[in-house]
């Protein structure tokens, strides 16, 4: 009997145990605002169910919030992005900035500088420094807290940053140094402080 059970469910149990471990890690990570490993645990449970004689056990993959959270978050994220884009467009008009990319259409440069990188710090999260490619013109988006910002450099070399979040009007700040404290923002009842830094990229420093 024991051998028969192991033959039927042994491999599935291995996948279920591994999957459950990742699910627990993911739920624990959400309590500390870290990224965790969503979906991985659900996939392992799904495989375990499909390999078992009782195929409907694969539905237990939905205990991993990634399986139902991500489709919903993509829909909500799309709606939030449209709203943020509308607010940014209003801010362009308010501050006399234009969205065009040519000199005839725009009074700001829009380009990518591969010698630099943008470092974003939110001490209240556990993810550490976020390092992004350095663009002037296109929007950066941050989920925690929920803000959108754009870095400009005008024709005189003066750097500006346009910051938007759902709770207040977009604001235009001078960005004349390599570091800037953007401010404190709230999301879901918790306050986050945001600082950005432009520094030489690691790849460029190794050359």
Structural write-up:
This protein is α+β, with helices and mostly antiparallel strands. The chain has helices spanning 2-31, 40-51, 66-95, 202-206; strands at residues 111-121, 130-136, 139-142, 147-153, 159-165, 168-174, 179-187, 190-200. It has a 4-stranded antiparallel β-sheet with strand order 2-1-8-7. A hairpin with an 8-residue loop joins strand 1 (111-121) and strand 2 (130-136). Helix 1 runs antiparallel to helix 2.
Tally of helical runs: 4
The stretches of 5 or more residues where confidence is low (pLDDT under 50) are 100-110
What's the main sheet like?
4 strands, antiparallel
Q: Output the helix-strand order.
A: HHHEEEEEEEEH
Portion in beta strands = 25-35%
Head-to-tail CA distance between termini: 65 Å
Multimeric status of the protein: single chain
What gross morphology would you assign?
elongated
Instruction: Give the strand line-up of the largest sheet.
Output: 2-1-8-7
Kindly state the percentage of residues in helix: 25-40%
- The mean pLDDT is 78
What's the Cα radius of gyration? 23 Å
Based on secondary structure, the structural category is: alpha+beta
Number of strands: 8
């Amino acid at each position: 009997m024991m051998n028969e059970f192991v033959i039927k469910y042994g491999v599935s149990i291995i996948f279920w145990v591994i999957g459950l471990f990742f699910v627990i890690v993911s739920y624990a990570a959400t309590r500390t605002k870290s990224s965790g490993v969503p979906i991985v645990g659900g996939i392992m449970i799904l495989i375990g169910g499909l390999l078992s004689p009782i195929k409907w056990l694969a539905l237990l993959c939905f205990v991993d919030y990634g399986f139902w959270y991500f489709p919903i978050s993509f829909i909500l994220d799309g709606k939030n992005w449209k709203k943020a884009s509308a607010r940014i467009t209003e801010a362009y008009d308010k501050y006399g900035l234009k969205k065009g990319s040519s000199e005839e259409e725009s009074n700001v440069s829009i380009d990518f500088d591969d010698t630099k990188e943008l470092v974003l710090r939110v001490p209240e999260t556990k993810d550490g420094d976020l390092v992004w490619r350095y663009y002037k013109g296109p929007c950066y988006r941050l989920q925690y807290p929920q803000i959108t910002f754009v870095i400009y450099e005008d024709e005189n070399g003066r750097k500006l940053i346009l910051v938007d979040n759902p709770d207040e009007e977009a604001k235009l700040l001078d960005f004349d140094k390599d570091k800037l404290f953007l401010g404190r923002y709230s999301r879901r009842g918790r306050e986050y402080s945001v600082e950005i830094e432009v520094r030489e990229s690691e790849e460029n420093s190794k050359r």
